[in-house]
Amino acid sequence: MQATRRSALAAALATPFVRPAAAQPAWPNRPVRVIVPWPPGGSTDVLCRLLCEQMQQRLGQTFVLENRPGAGGNIGADALAKATPDGYSMAPLTLGAWHINQFLYSTLPYNPQRDFQPISMHWELPNVLVVSSQHNPANSFQEFVAWAKARREGISYGSPGVGTTAHLSGALFTSRLGIDGTHVPFRGAAQIIPAMLSGDLTCAMDNLASYVPVIQEGRMKAFVITGAERWPNLPNVPIMQEVGVPDFVVTSWCAMAFPAGVPAAIVERAAAAMREIGQDAAVQERFLRAGAKCVWSTPAEVTARVDRERPTWREVVRISGARLD
């Protein structure tokens, strides 16, 4: 009897220290900070705002964007890596943060394999090879390649900066096709487009989202896109495989992430919300109008994609000769 009383007393004393899982606060129960490693108004910022609007509707909390641009996305990525892993800081991380920047810089302030907890894929879009309709005589990919190879002075191709997918895909394109190409970095498509329309720049192989309007207006010609399939809003533009260039699928993509160490239950709830958003046809249409595909995945699938693509981007950076130290 005494032993039974002691057992009961021990259980009673222990009970206040046991917190059932059901008693844990539901996530999110306060505003979530979303660190955007790029400036306001850019494609990553715009598409992140679309996502956060949907997250707020589904989860009942405010998602507050905080733009932390600079150093090819490294400033914002580092801010996420050093944030408290409680589920109240997240960020849209593009290819640079996940793997490209580690080949462009001799050192990074974060470790992309260690410091981020993937949530889900967010968006994806291809690059497009475009020229000015007024200043370029070619009317097809094959005509453009023949014209470019015949130019004694070569061609110039623009990008939003050294190490961007536009720069790297342009370097890969000129290398693979044997074209004498000179990279010209700009601050973004807002500068690249006028340079092409004035005839000062030959072409660009840049993110599709920025060029759909000028292509549809007829001011630019689109010869090929670098995706695995044709783009819904530009059904007449072929992919690389169709113009005789195999193994040339280059897409820009973004995945949402927490800092490493966020509890699994929070990661699962955030990923489930993004899955619902990615399966919503109305949301998909809004993303397409903004120039990207709304996509989703499991956290493990983000990691698998990063691991799969890392060797390719290491080789492309080597081909380009790009360095940012």
TrEMBL record:
Q: Has the keyword tRNA processing been applied to this entry?
A: no
Extract the Gene3D superfamilies matched here. Answer: Bordetella uptake gene, domain 1 (3.40.190.150), Periplasmic binding protein-like II (3.40.190.10)
Q: Which UniProt keywords apply?
A: Signal
- Span of the signal peptide: 1-23
What SUPFAM superfamilies is this protein classified in? Periplasmic binding protein-like II
Any matching Pfam family: TctC
In its UniProt entry, what is this protein called?
Tripartite tricarboxylate transporter substrate binding protein
